[in-house]
User: Which sequence fits this backbone?
């Protein structure tokens, strides 16, 4: 109980390193979620409602990538951006930007598959509406995304939750560097191993509160969407 009180006091005191770690975490999670949704949501609509050769194969690949181990994704990115890698000249290794890249690789398949699942539920009626209005493919995709906006916002929150809780990939490509690439999950792991339980607990409290908020919002949106139907 004493450790919890100390952790709360540390949060109330706005410890500089604590605030910096939270800021880096939110920045990384925001951009990785945004980019993943920009790529994954249209892709999910295309894979579910498109009619082209290789569609089923792409759906299977997306489903498989949902289970991609974070450390494996981190290793792939590390090899590509290390000094001797294809993109080594960019000098992005051990930066927040490369952590976003690794997160996008992990989260985009999740967003794609969840979007595909959402669109499949309301697909037939919307397709007939689009045909009746003679909408182009681009406008038809927009119709699918707009009609399912609440469910897709829930997908976005799920992606954000996945991003903010990830450890392996961001630790590998970011290096967990103090005042630069250290995020809440990697800091909790490090501080716990060092025996600094108060600092780790303070970060854990913030992480739990954010995760709880995201889950509650996603649940409310899902319920609201079902009520509208």
Assistant:
């Amino acid at each position: 109980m004493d450790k919890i009180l100390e952790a709360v006091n540390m949060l109330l005191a706005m410890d500089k390193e604590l605030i910096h770690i939270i800021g880096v975490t939110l920045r990384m999670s925001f951009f990785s979620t945004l980019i993943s949704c920009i790529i994954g949501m249209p892709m999910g609509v295309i894979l579910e409602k498109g009619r082209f050769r290789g569609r089923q194969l792409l759906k299977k690949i997306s489903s498989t990538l949902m289970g991609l181990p974070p450390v494996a994704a981190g290793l792939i990115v590390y090899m590509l951006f290390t000094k001797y890698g294809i993109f080594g000249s960019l000098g992005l290794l051990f930066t927040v930007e490369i952590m976003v890249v690794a997160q996008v690789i992990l989260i985009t398949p999740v967003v794609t598959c969840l979007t595909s699942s959402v669109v499949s539920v309301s697909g037939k009626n919307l397709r007939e509406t689009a045909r009746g209005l003679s909408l182009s493919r681009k406008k038809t995709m927009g119709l699918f995304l707009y009609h399912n906006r609440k469910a897709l916002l829930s997908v976005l929150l799920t992606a954000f939750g996945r991003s903010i809780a990830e450890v392996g990939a961001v630790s590998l490509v970011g290096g967990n560097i103090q005042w630069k690439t250290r995020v809440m999950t990697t800091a909790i792991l490090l501080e716990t191993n060092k025996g600094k339980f108060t600092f780790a607990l303070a970060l854990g409290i913030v992480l739990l509160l954010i995760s709880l908020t995201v889950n509650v919002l996603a649940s409310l949106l899902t319920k609201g969407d079902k009520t509208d139907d």
In short: The two ends are 46 Å apart (CA to CA).
